[in-house]
Amino acid sequence: MAPAKQSKNLFNIPNLMLPMLLMLFLVEFVRAAVLMSYLPAYGVTKLGFSVSMVGVAVTAHYAADTLLKLVSGYLLDRFSFRWILPAGLALGLLSLLSMQLFSSSWWLVIATTLYGVGLSPVWLVCVSYLQENQRGTQLGAIYTAWMGGMGGGLFLTNFMLDRNAPLAFWLLLGLAGAALVLSLFLPKPTEHHALSAPLRDQLADLALRLKAMGPLLPGMILQTLAAGMLVPILPSFVTSLMGLTYSQYSLLLLFGGVCAVAGLIPMGRLSDHFGQRWFLVGGFAVFAVSLSCLSGSRSFVSGLLWAIVLGLSYSAVLPAWNALLASQVSQEQQGVSWAVFSSVEGIGVMFGPILGGWIGDLLSARATLIMSAIVMAAIALFYGFYPLQHLFRGKSKTVS
Questions:
Q1: How does the record say this protein sits in the membrane (predicted)?
Q2: Which of 189, 209, 224 corresponds to the end of one domain?
């Protein structure tokens, strides 16, 4: 029997995906607001947490989220997501509430770890809605909800920190509660049957893939490491050393993000036309120079200038980097390949915040920015000299 045709909307997304996308938006809104804005800013300046402790807490969260995905996947294969997902979001909500009730630094680490455990099923449930014949469009919708939530959480929270920080936190708790309620009413995804290989075969395949993509590993790990290093120190750097308000910090993030998004399509077309190599190398190099210059900025105007350059350099890197990754993906095993890429990049996400916080406490926030810039410059040098054409394995260089 042919599957029933699903109703769609203006964006060609099945209507059954819309509640899931809204839930994902709310989850990522709260996560970004708490981990990338509230704790690094208000937690350091008002609650008395050290920068390194905030880095440890952020690292603990992403480590728990990444590692527990294996357990969550196992449970979701055997039990209904209708109780696993709400149970996880309830744990996340209670973890956030406990941050307000207990002020110990080590409890902060425990709470963010439990928060990561609670959110670990979210992404797996979201991708279970994907349909093979429209995977690209639907995955794009999921990434849009993810990025929109993250950007919205950062912007609104930084704006509110100048006015009423406690109210901002209670608002985030309310949004986390709304995501929990929404998860109780998510429609059931279209059923699909995944191939189940023995664990030994899966591990052997994983080892072969990691070996084959060896030249990609430095870029995959180091770029997320460099970005993660900035998470615990950027708010305090902007407010303490640059003398800006949190609202002005929000504007820097907004302008940088808008430039990054606006530049993706034209930069992608240019890299398709001229070749990805120099967009990749040049993007990382300009990113490194911009971070170094930002570390010496002392005004909103100069900070805004370098935020725009950082956004544009990111838009140059992303299409070229995705083309490089896509050249390593086989049509038969796209899901496995992208899962491996995501896991490897997660290593940098896990260790970047703790390293950035440690450098910030030991030296200064400016030193963390400079160290992050050095890492980006090292990536540019590596791919500047490495024969990247060997990685394309004869595939087309054009990836949109």
A1: Multi-pass membrane protein
A2: 189
Q: Summarize pLDDT for 322-353 with one digit per residue, the tens.
A: 777 767 665 555 555 666 677 777 788 889 99
Residue 384 CA to residue 221 CA, distance in Å, equals 17
Residue 100 domain boundaries: 10-189
CATH of the domain at 285: 1.20.1250.20
Whether the CB-CB separation of 216 and 379 falls below 8 Å is answered with: no
Q: How many residues does the chain have?
A: 400
How many domains does the structure of the chain reveal? Answer: 2
Three-state SS at 231: coil
Strand partners, 8: 14
Residue 184 DSSP one-character state: T
3-class state of residue 50 by DSSP: coil
Element (DSSP H or E) covering residue 324: helix 300-326
Q: Using DSSP, state whether 321 is helix, strand or coil.
A: helix
DSSP letters spanning 57-125 = HHHHHHHHHHHHHHHHHHHHHHS-HHHHHHHHHHHHHHHHHHHHH---HHHHHHHHHHHHHHHHHHHHH
- pLDDT tens-digit series, residues 47-61: 788 888 999 999 999
**Other residues' Cβ atoms within 10 Å of the Cβ of residue 266:** 13
